[in-house]
Amino acid sequence: MGQRMNYARRLIPIAVLLALAAFPLSGNDYYIGLAIKIMIYAIFALSLQLLVGGAGLISLGHAAFFGIGAYAAALLSPESEAGGLLWLLAAALGSAAIYALITGALALRTRGVYFIMVTLAFSQMAYYVFHDTDIGGGSDGIYLYFRPQMSLAGWMPFDLENPGVYYLFVLVCLALTWGFLAMLGRSPFGAALTGIRLNEQRMRAAGYSTFPYKLTAYVIGATLAGLAGFLYALKDGFVTPELLTWEQSGLVLLMVILGGMHRLGGAVLGTVTLILLQELFQSQALFGDYAKHWHLPLGLTIIALVALLPNGLAGLPAQWRERRETRRGTSAAPHSSASTVPSSASAGTGPRADASRSRTASSSFAIASPTGTSNNAAAAQSLSIPGGPHA
Hints:
- By secondary structure, the protein is an all-alpha fold.
- It has a domain at 37-245.
- Helix content is 71%, strand content 1%.
- The protein has a two-stranded antiparallel ribbon with strand order 1-2.
- The two termini are 43 Å apart.
- The model is unreliable at 341-391 (pLDDT under 50).
């Protein structure tokens, strides 16, 4: 049964990928555009999930890397013709990574709420650079007139100006991001991040220098956020400083929490749910004039979901199974208690039984913890991470 469940879980991402690949055949431009938006924000949420669910780093400044990637695509693109896809993509990802390397080296010196506030401060700094200066058109933003193209000796393998091709390009980026993070999570690096999230002090005691691990995860997450920003700029052809606001950081953090912080599928599921809820409550066809107050029902719905699903939407099946097992155990308890009749023989009373219990307890203690060394060895073994400590 367990093998079938694991096999089904592996097939779900493949089935979703095939369904998304066939989705443009529906021919509805609105829903195709909505699907592109969801996939871009899913990449954005996956990039933050590496920090929140992987290393336990809650950031309120992740939108800075999203916006920097978008501005790099718009600022470096020529106004009269399409730019080169590969170098524009590399510039967008590199810009986000460099900013993350500089700010992360400082922000990761702090912990907890101080880390949250420092990341928020760095994000607002980037926001005001683009908002209050003429670098990116100020508060009016900047246009991207042509989507970049990839040319190999004059031959173009695909044309991103084609909506269907652009859709598939975004889908491929999402699949590669998912695959990369899945492999990263199963690697010794991912195991080290999990240990840091669970108990950083114990990881240090085991000989690990945790700062390089956290900084690397921070830069990788920022680079993937820059990829999402790059795709967003190509989608709308317009970039504004609003992409760097703290509200944007809070939105993607909410996606991760809503879906489930410790699973890749949770980040994607939270993105789909939140964006579809926004579209639902903004629909004037359903809510009429009340649609302009869509923030209120959206907020109430999110509060209800977070309260009812403490492990996120991805943890809903496990929560249901736990409740079923609890109900079965409760219903079986009266029968088991009724069939049990206490007696002096079965209860083991008397001096011989007391002596037997004493010998059993002492022997079990000797096996479990002879001179207190077994527990320490087990604890040390539980701390071992593949790859060995790196001081």
